[in-house]
Write a structure and sequence with these properties.
The chain is of the alpha+beta class. The protein has two domains: 5-239, 4-Layer Sandwich (Glutamine Phosphoribosylpyrophosphate, subunit 1, domain 1); 260-436, Rossmann fold (3-Layer(aba) Sandwich). The protein contains 17 helices and 25 strands. It has a seven-stranded antiparallel sheet. A hairpin with a 2-residue loop joins strand 16 (255-256) and strand 17.
Length: 465
């Protein structure tokens, strides 16, 4: 599945003396799955800010020369996924203010920015065509201009923010990290050399030899500077972790809310097998997300697993805008069927989700063309029937296949022999966290953070099965 995109991943590093840009580069490389079309790093040596941004994958945005120019012992970095409405560098981050004494990178989304816009307008500093991340930076920048330090400025702006946000910010002497009280987007703290690293996922720590300390708490602000590490509680935590981080977005070697993503995905497969009894020769996963799911499925069911699809790892849209037509065509480039394995076989294919359905339809068609006798499609999450407002690029609701079709109608459209989804109960059980601590809005239409004026974009008249 590649029709849902996380909008970004963030990293922040503070050390006493060490040059940190190279560490930020490798951390962003580890977070490439969270944003694949633009990347940026801002650093400071306590005197000047240095910024480098570019379109494309991390490996193509930076080189030795650009990294060497990013001087300093404090930096923040950002990987971005751009929507089809904007170019790869449109609103690219980090956001740096005009005085170049403050920078911000944001993972998440504010469904409503009316409070921020009202505040900035009243203060006479509202700019046009500003993203939610830029508005946050503008508001904090206003308080910095009044003489507040970065800690106090963030505390003043925090009540204006409605939505999901994991933020890393920097001044010339401090690194600050903030996570909203719902903890919808992940954020963790690691120890690195003579300092610390903040990153969207723990997988970024291992890449640079940092040790995992803990996850940033919901509603917590961390301040790192020469005085050490300071923690400030900005709000009472009310965890609503996005379940799709476990299903698809996060890397399998990351730990979220104390749960190893790899093990959660194996649990998804176990529960999928418990709920669905199939008479097939073997199962094949859609690489890479579904591989742990397939391992769990075969462990529970006893049905063998084969690698019937090979992923071409060198296909990227580095400088190509993500229009829907190119997404559909890319399926044939990314996944290559092994005809010799599939010929005359009854197979079950495991994938993580169905969004518009075009990718699944093309995949099933490809497997039949490769010689499969039957193609049963198993999905390790419930039908996606509702849009997201918290930092994931989803189509409009009417474009979601599950928003207007029953499972049987979806099966007919895709052309599979059978189609089965994991139940919501099976999904929650696999994660291992209480249901009330998870955001399942994709499937239920229950939005734990008020989406305010965006409510009129949601249609609750969806099929029940």
């Amino acid at each position: 599945m590649n029709e849902l995109k996380e909008k970004c991943g963030v990293v922040g590093i503070f050390t006493e003396k060490t040059e940190v840009a190279k560490y930020a580069f490798f951390s962003l490389f580890a977070l490439q799955h969270r944003g694949q079309e633009a990347s940026g790093i801002t650093s400071t040596n306590g005197i000047d800010f240095h910024t480098h941004k570019g379109a494309g994958l991390v490996s193509s945005v930076y080189n030795e020369e650009s990294i060497l120019k990013l001087k300093g012992n404090i930096c923040i970095g950002h990987n971005r996924y751009s929507t089809s409405q904007g170019g790869a560098l449109s609103h690219a981050q980090p956001v740096v203010n005009l005085k170049e004494n403050f920078a911000l990178a944001h993972n998440g989304n504010l469904p409503s920015v009316k409070a921020l816009e009202k505040f900035l307008k009243e203060k006479g500093v509202l700019q046009q065509d500003r993203s939610d991340s830029e508005l946050i930076a503008d508001a904090i920048g206003f308080y910095l201009d009044t003489g507040l330090n970065i800690e106090k400025a963030v505390q003043e702006v925090f009540p204006l923010l409605t939505g999901s946000f994991s933020l890393v910010m920097m001044s010339k002497d401090s690194l600050v990290a903030v996570r909203d009280k719902y903890g919808m987007r992940p954020l963790c703290l690691g120890k690195l050399l003579d300092g610390y690293i903040i990153a969207s996922e723990s997988c970024a720590l291992k890449t640079i030899g940092a040790s995992f300390v803990r996850e940033i708490n919901e509603g917590e602000m961390i301040i790192l500077n020469k005085e050490g590490l300071k923690s400030v509680k900005l709000a009472e935590k009310n965890p609503k972790h996005d379940v799709f981080e476990y299903v698809y977005f996060s890397r399998p070697d990351s730990v979220l809310a104390g749960k190893l993503v790899y093990q959660v995905r194996k649990n998804l497969g176990i529960n999928l097998a418990k709920e669905n009894k199939l008479d097939v020769d073997f199962i094949i996963p859609v690489p890479d997300t579904a591989v742990p799911v397939a391992l769990g499925f075969t462990q529970e069911s006893g049905i063998p697993m084969e690698l019937g699809l090979i992923k071409n790892r060198y296909v990227h849209r580095t400088f190509i805008e993500p229009d829907q037509d190119s997404r559909r065509k890319s399926v044939a480039l990314k996944l290559i069927p092994m005809n010799e394995v599939l010929k005359d076989k009854k197979i079950a294919v495991i994938d993580d989700s169905i969004v518009r359905g075009h990718t699944s339809k093309r995949l099933v068609q490809t497997l039949f063309e490769a010689g499969a006798k039957e193609v049963h499609l198993l999905i390790s999450s419930p039908p996606v029937r509702f849009p997201d407002f918290y930092g994931i690029d989803t189509p409009k609701q009417e474009e979601l296949l599950g928003s207007s079709n029953t499972v049987e109608q979806m099966r007919e459209f895709i052309g599979a022999t059978s189609l089965n989804f994991l139940s919501l109960e099976g999904l929650v059980d696999a994660v291992g966290l209480p249901k009330e601590e998870l955001c399942t809005s994709f499937f239920t239409g229950e939005y734990p953070i008020d989406i305010l004026e965006r409510k009129n974009e949601v249609n609750y008249d969806v099929p029940k099965s």
